[in-house]
Write a structure and sequence with these properties.
By secondary structure, the protein is an alpha/beta fold. The protein is built from eight helices and nine strands. A hairpin with a 5-residue loop joins strand 8 and strand 9. Helix 7 (about 205-225) packs across helix 8. The protein is elongated. The structure holds S-adenosyl-L-homocysteine (SAH). S-adenosyl-L-homocysteine binds near residues 88, 113, 133 and 137.
Length: about 240
């Protein structure tokens, strides 16, 4: 079973989104487990502080390496599982679906959430954290980023999602975005009294034609929203 351990200065932000829907259900069914570690338990003075001002000057505060080491030693205890260490940071490698597929096969993932200006770089390097970003923008803490990573990873653990085919056909699975989806009503009359039809082919019952239409739409959508994925796809073909 995959165990996720979160190192954070804001433990009350967990399980947060991870307690809901399929991921939350899987948590309650012990298909994965979550442990949240408060960095302040490893703080260094009477006030259990965890941060200090940056050497070299500049605004903000930086989380100290000795605090992180103590927290890591604590989670390492009683566990010889196959572990992955991740530090959430906007200056990390951008998280991709392929990474989530790899992560979902580990026995234990330890995720460090930064705050303020981040974490002393020595702790990241010496303790072996991979630096991962969830996108090119800056949040004020790693907690939501960690929940994004965990949510994306847990849904790939076998038995968590109902229909495993839905994973195979999803966006990114073949360097393509997913085709558009439609449901009832067949004709939707909006509040301006305009009618909007579902594409005919989806109502035709011709499986081959539906498959072709969906593939064409996938290509169209990828070209318009994420052309870099198509470059990947073509490169792999060569
Ligand atoms: N001074 C840092 C930003 C710190 S943001 C810099 O310029 O790179 C504070 C914390 O929020 C970070 O330590 C990190 O844990 C988290 N965070 C912010 N944006 C993030 C992102 N895009 N992906 C992952 N974590 C992020």
């Amino acid at each position: 079973m995959l165990t996720v351990k979160i190192l954070t200065a804001y433990p009350e932000m967990f399980p947060g989104a991870l307690n809901h829907s399929v991921i939350g259900k899987a948590l309650k069914q012990n298909k994965w487990s979550l442990e949240v570690i408060n960095l302040h338990d490893f703080g260094f003075n009477r006030r259990k502080s965890i941060d200090d001002s940056p050497f070299g000057g500049g605004p903000g505060m930086v989380i100290r390496p000795d605090v992180i080491e103590k927290a890591v030693n604590h989670v390492k205890k009683n566990s010889n599982k196959n572990k992955l260490y991740i530090y959430m940071t906007p200056s990390g490698k951008t998280l991709k679906q392929q990474d989530l597929e790899k992560y979902s096969k580990f026995e234990e993932i330890i995720i460090l959430c930064g705050r303020f200006e981040g974490v002393d770089q020595r702790a990241i390097n010496i303790l072996g954290f991979q630096e991962i970003s969830i996108g090119d923008y800056v949040l004020s803490g790693g907690e939501i980023a960690a929940q994004v990573l965990v949510e994306g990873c847990i849904r790939l653990v076998p038995g968590v999602l109902g229909q495993s085919e839905s994973i195979l056909e999803e966006s990114f699975s073949d360097d393509l975005l997913e085709y558009p989806q439609y449901t009832r009503p067949k004709v939707w009359t909006d509040t301006q009294h305009k009618k909007h039809h579902v594409p005919d082919v989806l109502l035709s019952g011709h499986h081959e034609e539906i498959k072709k239409w969906r593939f064409d739409k996938s290509i169209e959508k990828t070209e318009s929203n994420k052309p870099d994925l198509l470059d990947n796809k073509n490169r792999k073909k060569k």
